[in-house]
Amino acid sequence: MRYPDYVKNFRPKGTVVKKVGETYYAYYATSKRVPGKKYPVQVIKGLAGRIDAQGFHEQTRMVLDTKEVTIRECGFTNYLLLSEDEYAARLSYMQVNGKSIPMRTRREIYRSLIVYLSDNSYLNESTWRIYTTEELADKFGIGIPTQLGVVSRVLERPLSELDPLKYICEVEIDGKHFESKLTKAQAEMLERLGIDEEDIRRREE
């Protein structure tokens, strides 16, 4: 992603930048070697502050007076989305009314399964069509248990093993966006999976 010059100029050393909405945040980051990986993996340590045209503003504690808080799961969802194309390819044989199912529809089916597994997924608010279990059965002849078995094979691990990722969330309070802090168990799981924290923090539309 291309950032404004002021972001490059004010970014503290040892940090990476992520854009959330219209705000640029700097996160402490290091690199570490992971067995089986050709290149070092970036590890996010925590929020350093935000950057605007006036400079870098170090993170400070804040008290918010609000009654409206929105929490959406992103960790589990984004991990499964890494295998979306592989799952969609496995549905290439499927037909409806004698016609092959388009690639986008196959992806919608996969995203519907993700929402079935994590009903607080941010995909509920995306522009993609999310099918109910009844629609999947009636329109495509899809049985949930069978397809969950396919998803597990694509991921090469039991879905229950990934449950800790369901508690990695994004939080919105009065239009301000925050991220839930990783627990030690979640950080260790990401390391075992060889996944960068940035990969499970992004939000796809």
Oligomer: single chain
Q: Rg to the nearest angstrom? A: 19 Å
Overall pLDDT score: 86
CA-based shape: globular
What is the domain total for the residues?
A: 2
Which series of helices and strands comes N to C?
HEEEEEHHEEHHHEEHH
Offer a concise description of the structure:
With about 200 residues, this protein is α+β, with helices and mostly antiparallel strands. The protein has helices at about 5-10, 75-80, 85-90, 105-115, 135-140, 145-155, 185-195, 195-200; strands at about 15-20, 25-30, 40-50, 55-60, 70-75, 95, 100, 170-175, 175-180.
Give the secondary structure arrangement, pairings included.
Elements: H1 5-10, E1 15-20, E2 23-32, E3 41-52, E4 55-58, E5 69-73, H2 75-81, H3 84-90, E6 95-96, E7 99-100, H4 103-117, H5 133-140, H6 144-155, E8 169-173, E9 176-179, H7 184-193, H8 197-201
Antiparallel strand pairs: 1-2, 2-3, 3-4, 5-8, 6-7, 8-9
Helix pairs in contact: 3-4
Explain how this protein is built:
- This protein has 205 residues and is of the alpha+beta class.
- It has two domains: 61 residues, no CATH class; 143 residues, no CATH class.
- The protein has eight helices and nine strands.
- It has a four-stranded antiparallel beta sheet with strand order 1-2-3-4.
- Strand 3 and strand 4 form a beta hairpin.
- Helix 3 packs across helix 4.
- The longest helix has 15 residues.
- It is globular and about 60 Å long.
Features:
205 residues, alpha+beta, three-stranded antiparallel β-sheet, 24% strand
